[in-house]
Please model this.
Amino acid sequence: MSTPKNITKLGTMFKGVLSKEVLEKFKKSFFDDEKNLLAQNVCTKQDPFESAQSRKIVENTLHVFNTKIESEGKPLTNQKSSGRCWLFAALNVIRLPVIKKFNLEDFEFSQGYLFYWDKIERCNFFLNNIVETTKRGEPVDGRLVSFLLYDPTCDGGQWDMIVNLINKHGLMPKKNFPESYSCEASARMNQVLKSKLREYAKAIRDLIQKGGSDGDVQSLIQEQMNNIYRIVGICLGIPNETFTWNYYDKNKEFHSIGPITPKDFYEQHVKPLFNVDDKVCLVTDPRLTNSYGKAYTVDCLGNMVGGRRCIYNNQPVELLLELTSKSIKEGEAVWFGCEVSKRIAAKLGIQDLAVHDFPLLFGVDIQITMTKGDRLLYGESAMTHAMVFTAVHLDEKGEVEKLRVENSWGEERGEKGYLLMTADWFKEFTFEVVVDKKYVSEEVLNVFQQEPIVLPAWDPMGTLAS
Model:
């Protein structure tokens, strides 16, 4: 959009001060364009993003796809007021072969079960990170420790964290460990945990700086974790060590599995259908400083002491789209991470770069005015949400035009909870996908054998999906 004539020379007199004269010029420029008055009338009465929605894009968007997985999972899940999308998305993928194998009408794994263990493991991981950073000589008011203390435990996560939880603690059906208030609305529980973790961080740093031994430090952490265990158990409940799963199949026949431990349930009944160790997570980070074909990790990022690190195998976004399409063609849904809030008509479930016409409304565009790499650098973009691809629509050349997305926000938004994403949106705002390693070339798989380059804890690639 061209600059209004009456402020073209404003820069020569501006000098950084918003003087009365400068503000008068801004005001005159605003009221000289009657379109601004119309836009003001509209936006002062309703959501500006709704006002910028393109009717043309809405009319031309059809939730129809020519390549889908065999069947989608039921019921449509809802993470409610929690940041558990990464867990919901993973369990929504894993349940598909389970539903088929056991001939079920619908099924959910317990998201609360993994959430419980993530809280326990994550708090312990944080306290041990405080030990590590203290021994490194990191000051409490330095950038690293300040970053860790800002959010000692959150709900969000990454794929490798899911693998840690499932391999150590297994899985159980939702009926055997249902939701609690703090599963669905985690803010209060997190507030309690964060307060204690900051208090405990000070105690750990004080002990180390006074010359406490490693044994003394670990004894202190054990005492602290006893309190954390109590808090989490009070808020979420404590899962039983064994359970019995009773269920009816589609033919109304009764079945029973158990008593069985969650670990054995995964190993015996789920792993043969979906082995988390056979899945690989590929990311796309187009910043010039981070080369494709390299492995990266993020300092102090994880959820389990002794667990696997979060490893980022950096590849071009075109490869991520290609492997997503290949997986869908073979009938396998795909876990992925993206920045969900950009260029989305949430009520209609449309993720399209043209779904909002911001230049028409505001006279300027937003969100896609920088490259994907620059958006990462300048804090305008990061991977914030995880969902599941269940279908793609291919053109005559076999190229992906759009994708179907299973979300975890309930059925109220989108097409009964499902979103539609264009391929162009995928390229701009998708950051990672998880596919079976059998679809990935040996050259790409070999990147996981590299010693990863360590990015700082505050790097945007360490943002956790919530």
Notes: The chain has two domains: 1-34, 67-462. The longest strand covers residues 385-394.
